[in-house]
Amino acid sequence: MQCPSTQTCSKPKVVTWKLLMNFFQGLPQLSPAESDTLGSNITLEELTSAVTQMASGKAPGIDGLPADFFKHFWSMLGQDLLDVLMESFGKGSLPASCRRAVISLLPKKGDLTLVKNWRPVALLCTDYKILSKVLANRLKCFIELLIGTDQTYCIPGRSIVDNLFLMRDTFDVCKLYNINVGIISIDQEKAFDRVDHTFLAATLQAFGVGEHFLSWVKCLYSDACCVVKVGGGLSRPVSVKRGIRQGCPISGLLYSIAIEPLLCRLRNRLRGLCLPESAQAPPVVVSAYADDVSVFIQGQRDIQELQDSLALYRKAASAKVNWEKSEAVLVGQWSVGNRPSLPGNLGWGNRGLKVLGVWLGSEDMVAQHWEGLLGKMQAKLAKWKWLLPQLSYRGRVLVANNLVASSLWHRLQVLTPPPGLMKQLQRLLVDFFWSGHHWVPASVLYLPVAEGGQGLVDITARTAAFRLQAAQRLLYGASPCWLAMARLLLWRAGALVLISTCFC
């Protein structure tokens, strides 16, 4: 295999143990009892639970057997699968069909003649995914002890909205309290595909994961190979020496573990965003959702520490930062002479940046979300106009709710649209439903079918529900960083007592 630079990339780099130990300083560890629980023998009950949790209707792997097949015949297959897995564990390698994945390529943005603009998704055999699901279920019980609260990807009880709330409120807090901070949004090139297996195993050991569970993880990747589905056929098998399979139940947890040493090092070495003493909170240094990492810096020293940490992570884990796609913004009143210098061709902005698909920062930056939104929704609905005479009322609601309105929810959880926009958007959905005369009030359409309505989504009500969920999360499940940030804003607004009264 060759990179665009014509360098052959067939073998992973050799990483010295001294380098790894330097990188693993400060990581939390499981207790011996927790490690033993994590590594205990797999049981038939665990396999049964994993099969029950698997979604139906998903694409199968190379053997063509979907999850529905295993669910239907589980009473006959369960014990046999357990025996096969235990025998494979003893050999240190899974059967050939389990080791082979079919890579399906999904297009991303940009020039599709470039390999980097395609996202590989691994279609794995169901028996492999059952094993992976069992291991993931076990790891979920302990993952919160290992991963910092500023990483939310695949961690039970955490959400991507925690990252968005934190980043959104950072701009307001810095403005209200006259705080200066720089934010660098780091783009990592092919983050999942570049994870080094040796580094991953060493990281699990550094977290105190025992040999038994570690051997199961190694078994998942031992002698792994893939075939690429392209042009209606399959390529020759290619050995997989690094990377975490996207589509595997345990992949998200393993990636969160693989990147945690970098995040831990940044927390310990950067000054970050120092909040006022009234917040009684440690500095905010990073906000991470998988490989989408935003770093808060205070000056040139933080920039240098960031570069040193990323260079060390590159050597240890084969990671690579794409500075061309990374972004940086200065929040507050920075004089020209005090602006830290950035690596590569990265330059400072002062309006805001795009975080996890949402524009945050100044008012004109946030306004980009709403510009042309009405026209985009009209265009989406217009594609279905020709089919309206054949669509039942239920079908029209399905199109309006799931194919059109659903694109609003991610941004509406975080941002408030301009006055009047939601009414215009709602009118589009109602007009699409009736395609002519409105026979009953819209309020009736919003009711559930069981109450005489049609279940058409009420955008205003859904947005209000998002606000209540945010308030409830603030009181019962917020990350410490966002909690401190939100309290500063609420104290200034005098609203914290009101929210506590509503939910306590």
Indicate the topology.
Blueprint (H helix, E strand, L loop, with lengths): L16 H7 L8 H7 L5 H10 L13 H6 L1 H18 L4 H4 E8 L10 E6 L2 H15 L2 H4 L13 H17 L4 E6 L10 H10 L4 H11 L3 E6 L2 E2 L3 E2 L11 H19 L16 E4 L2 E6 L2 H18 L9 E5 L16 E2 L2 E4 L2 E4 L1 H4 L6 H10 L10 H12 L4 H4 L8 H14 L7 H4 L13 H18 L3 H14 L2 H8 L1
Parallel strand pairs: 1-4, 9-10
Antiparallel strand pairs: 1-2, 3-8, 3-9, 4-5, 4-6, 7-8, 11-12
Structural class computed from helices and strand pairing: alpha+beta
Please tell me how large the radius of gyration is.
25 Å
Q: How many strands in all?
A: 12
- Biggest sheet overview: 5 strands, mixed
Mean pLDDT, rounded to whole units? 88
Q: List the total number of helices.
A: 22
Outline type: globular
Domain Reverse transcriptase: 87-364
Protein name: Reverse transcriptase domain-containing protein
Describe this structure in words.
With 504 residues, the chain is an alpha+beta fold. Among the domains are: 31-141 and 197-241, no CATH class; 370-457, no CATH class. It is 46% helix and 11% strand. It contains 22 helices and twelve strands. Strands 1, 2, 4, 5 and 6 form a five-stranded mixed β-sheet that branches. Residues 87-364 form the Reverse transcriptase domain. InterPro entries: DNA/RNA_pol_sf, RT_dom. It holds the Pfam family RVT_1. This is Reverse transcriptase domain-containing protein.
